[in-house]
Amino acid sequence: MKPREAFAEENSGFWSFLSPLKTNLYNFILKSLNFATDADDVYQETVLHGFQYFASFRRDADFRAWIFSIAHNEIKRHFKRTRKQIDVGAANIPLMSVPQEKKALVQEIYSYASGLKPREREVFFLFYESGFAISEIEEITNLKSGYIKLLLHQARTNLKTKLGVSHD
User: Fold this and answer.
1) pLDDT digits (tens, 9 = 90+) for 42-95
2) Which residues have CB under 8 Å from 104's CB, separation 6+?
């Protein structure tokens, strides 16, 4: 195979892996950055780095965890570069895909999550919205499973308190 044809095959392979995950990946980045406009830049950097390193991606590995790991690293890099907390923008986000009767609750949850520290917010959305298992979050974030469970427990407890739900 000619080098140009090999590149075209790699290129299409990356996009076929990424395509079903684009929305979920973008939403994770957006929520991890508290709905900041910087999310577009971080998403683009994630996709660019994923594309650049796709040749080294083991085809027997989980692409979803791999690309979310890249996003996690780009989010960390963003916070190091900006050295600031992102302004809370959750109050103004559009909730087009949420049924009308649940919009107030979802908005309250997003508002709560926006008050979490970046690492806690990231773990919260990886688990509750992106549906990653504890072991996958451990792989993505390089945090120990016990610490991830602690963060999730604290988040649930605090959210229940904020929503006025009993802690049974």
Assistant:
1) 999 999 999 999 988 888 889 999 999 999 999 989 988 886 544 444 444 555
2) none
Distance of CA 103 to the CA centre of its chain: 21
- Residue 66, CB half-sphere, CA atoms under 13 Å: how many? 18
Q: What is the pTM of this model?
A: 0.70
- Separation of alpha carbons 17 and 67, rounded Å: 10
Break the chain into its structural domains and give their ranges: 3-163
CB within 8 Å of 38: residues ≥ 6 apart: 78, 82, 86
Q: Compute the CA torsion angle 120, 21, 111, 77 (nearest 10 deg).
A: 50
DSSP string, 139-163: HHH---HHHHHHHHHHHHHHHHHHH
Q: Is the model's pLDDT at 113 over the cut of 70? A: yes
How far are the Cα atoms of 19, 27, 157 from residue 23, in angstroms, in the given order? 8, 6, 29
CA distance 11 to 13: 5
What's the CATH code, domain 3-163? 1.20.140.160
Helix, strand, or coil (residue 81): helix
